[in-house]
TrEMBL record:
Species, as recorded: Rhizobium favelukesii
Record-listed E.C. numbers: 3.2.1.23
Keyword presence, DNA damage: no
Reaction(s) this enzyme catalyzes, per UniProt: Hydrolysis of terminal non-reducing beta-D-galactose residues in beta-D-galactosides
Pfam families documented for this protein: Glyco_hydro_42, Glyco_hydro_42C, Glyco_hydro_42M
The name this protein goes by in its record: Beta-galactosidase
One GO CC term on file: beta-galactosidase complex
């Protein structure tokens, strides 16, 4: 497997490997050695070419401080290699050994209430701790030195799902590192006091040593700037922790590829050093776990959303952990994929940008906190339907990968995403309203259900390949994005700017100029003179929210319902709709056209949706937050003129359609997400790479069946 230097981060970046990574995370340390050869033989028979090893095995590799024993994994790697299976090794820093946490207790995390983490779980060590970083570098150095010349170790995963169990820490070491970060960022305490608004609530500091990490409700709200800088620091510290390991691995063998596997997307700036250090990113995919946690459209829709969000950070990716069956830890369990679903979910990952996939896991554990998290092989060492589906998927990949590698996922409609500061700025001051991601997912879900190519993109990426860009109330808008966005509109693109966009600067201050600031007012031809809160759709009051792992809506708190009866409506396209969450009153430039107006109360007659022509394109401003009816109305008004069409006409319910393409080819993935057969009446003419048959007049898909049509 050959590696080339990675291209710069972009949603359009393809993987820098010449083969599709296909296999499983494997834990030879969990079973008797007599199983190993049979395991390797069955992996090879399934069509796998790689395994992932070692992410939780620090205690075996360094059983005593400074004493290393690689023998178990040396033997396991050799057995796998004899059957043609290569190894991705992991730095095992997610689970330090007991001797380390006992000898150096200062490496343990401290939570918000001052409790010190105990040994016996994972991610209990604080990656901000300088002492822990010393030990992390030492184990990484030992592993890199030992395996530098082993041709069967082809790449590395750093740690395991950084910040997934917990991302915050309140230990003394964290506080010291936070102060050091702030000194480097601001240099003077006066500069910090300005950024944090020190003259509000007497929040000013005399020196950096007085600063503590912020704690919520202690007793009131911390300054938004303080909170945002704490999360900037956590992201910085996570990147520095990983950078230590990457530097060591790169020095040892420049041919190795290096990636990280992400679970939750907490306190990591993927577009910063964290992502720039890696060859590519990996995202762990458990669709039925998302469905249980988020309940937003079923697990096919939530898997699609998750992968489209992730692809915006880095472009094509791998899936180091793809769900294979029932999953659980002591506090939860997932639904179980029905026959055919495991394969279909894996092909959905490929359709949305995966150029490598490892089914989690080879066999389930017989002990520990995941004993009912199933793998490809059952507890009794018998391969059943999950193994057979893995074999089938491997066959699918062998047929499509010559055409797949080098392609990217098509997007006609794109939602602004992948910006760490905007994600965190919302969290510092949510006001009980939807996050940018929650707002944007309404548009994503509309497109997904209709087979329209939709995803997420950062404004600094190449926008020439999309037709519509929606900015979902990004409160921070950087002037350096204007040139790219203006060129997109001038060349014929449609920009849609959501309410509250460009209302703050990077310090979370409100500027003196009216929003949307930083050039968007000139492009859109609007200025916001007033805004106010509205009730949620169907609500009997106003709701507070605290975002979930992706910033999605969780109406856990109710605010006073005094505004609940104040319904504000608007007209758009000869229809009248109820607005939700927020209204804005707009002042317009002379060349701006109004296509939607407020229709009741004091706002009646004022503009709500506007269009300004700019070059060959147009800039649309929407003075409220999205609702499902508003998304449909905007699509009716704007999509046709932008030449946005479904990838398939007459798309049946529960069918997912996605396109991967390059200059010389197009691959249309058509995935039946239902347990019933379905018929596609108007498929494109081409070859179904999976069956080898030509598709012409119609396409019939059985339960959870898939087609990949090349044309």
């Amino acid at each position: 497997m050959k590696r080339t230097p990675p291209a710069p981060l972009s949603v359009w970046r393809t993987l820098n490997l010449d083969d599709f990574l296909l296999g499983v995370p494997h834990y030879p340390e969990h079973v008797d050695e007599s199983y190993w050869l049979r395991d390797a033989q069955r992996m090879a028979a399934a069509g796998f070419n790689v395994v992932r090893l070692g992410e939780f095995a620090w205690h075996l590799i360094e059983p005593q401080e400074g004493h290393f024993d690689f023998s178990l994994f040396d033997r396991a790697i050799d057995v796998l290699a004899c059957e043609g299976i290569k190894t991705i090794f992991c730095t095992p820093t997610a689970t330090p050994p007991r001797w380390l946490t006992s000898t150096y207790p200062e490496v343990l995390r401290t939570d918000e209430w001052g409790r010190t983490a105990s040994h016996g779980s994972r991610q209990h060590a604080d990656t901000n701790s300088p002492v822990y970083r010393i030990h992390s570098r030492r184990i990484t150095e030992a592993l890199a030195r030992h395996y530098a010349g082993n041709p069967n170790v082809i790449g590395w995963q750093t740690d395991n799902e950084l910040n997934t169990t917990v991302s915050t820490s309140y230990a003394e070491a964290t506080e010291r590192e936070f102060r050091r970060y702030l000194r480097d960022r601001y240099e003077t305490i006066a500069a910090l006091n300005f950024a944090w608004g020190g003259n509000f609530w007497a929040l000013a500091y005399d020196n950096f040593d007085q600063i503590a990490v912020p704690r919520k409700d202690n007793p009131g709200f911390p300054a938004p700037g303080h909170l945002q800088d704490y999360h900037r620091f956590l992201a910085h510290a996570t990147a520095v922790f990983q950078h230590d390991q990457v530097e060591i691995l790169r020095r040892a063998n420049s041919d190795w590829f290096i990636f990280h596997n992400l679970g939750r997307l907490e306190d990591i700036d993927f577009r910063g050093q964290f992502g720039q250090d890696l060859d590519f990113l990996g995202f762990d995919v458990y669709p039925m776990l998302y469905d249980e946690m988020r309940r937003s459209g079923g697990h096919p829709a939530t898997q699609a959303l998750h992968l489209d969000i992730c692809r915006a950070y880095s472009g094509n990716f791998i899936v180091p952990e793809q769900a294979s069956g029932f999953g659980s830890q002591p506090g939860f369990s997932t639904m179980t994929p029905e026959p055919g679903e495991m394969r279909r979910m894996a092909l959905s990952s490929v359709a949305r940008g995966a150029d490598g996939l490892l089914f989690f896991r080879w066999r389930p554990a017989h002990f520990g906190a995941e004993i009912y998290w199933m793998g490809i092989i059952d507890h009794d060492d018998v391969p059943r339907r999950r193994y057979q589906e893995a074999v089938q998927f491997a066959g699918d990949i062998s047929k499509i990968k010559p055409h797949l590698l080098g392609t990217t996922v098509r997007m006609d409609v794109a939602i602004a995403g992948a910006d760490f500061d905007n994600q965190e700025a919302y969290k510092t001051y949510p006001m009980g309203m939807p996050s940018p991601l929650e707002d944007g997912l309404l548009l994503h879900r509309y497109c997904y259900s209709r087979g329209i190519a939709c995803g997420f993109i950062h404004p600094e990426d190449d926008l020439s390949r999309i037709k519509i860009l929606y900015v979902p109330h990004w409160v921070i808008w950087r002037p350096e994005w204007n040139e790219n966005v203006e060129a997109f509109v001038k060349d014929g693109g449609t920009l849609i700017v959501g309410a509250m966009t460009g209302t703050r600067d990077e310090n979370n201050h409100i500027p003196t100029e009216l929003a949307p600031r930083a050039g968007l007012s000139r492009l859109c031809g609007v200025r916001v003179e007033e805004f106010g809160r509205l009730a949620e759709p169907g609500a009997d009051g106003l709701f507070g929210l605290h975002g979930t792992e992706y910033g999605l809506h969780n109406p856990a708190k109710r605010l006073p319902a005094s505004s609940a009866t104040r319904r504000y409506s608007f007209s758009l396209g000869n229809q009248e709709y109820d607005a939700a969450h927020l209204y804005e009153l707009l002042r317009l430039d002379d060349d701006v056209k109004v296509i939607g107006r407020w229709t009741n109360r004091f706002a009646s007659g004022r503009p709500m949706v506007t269009v300004r022509r700019f070059g060959n394109g147009r800039a649309v401003y929407v003075g409220t937050y999205l609702t499902e009816p508003l998304v449909e109305a905007l699509a009716t008004q704007l999509f046709a003129e932008s030449n946005v069409q479904p990838l398939l006409q007459d798309l049946p319910p529960n069918v997912e359609v996605t396109m991967r393409e390059a200059d010389d080819r197009k691959l249309l993935f058509v995935l039946n997400c239902d347990a019933e057969a379905t018929e596609i009446k108007t498929p494109p003419q081409g070859i179904d790479l999976i069956t080898g048959r030509r598709v012409e007049e119609k396409l019939t898909l059985g339960p959870h069946e898939c087609a990949v049509i090349q044309f």
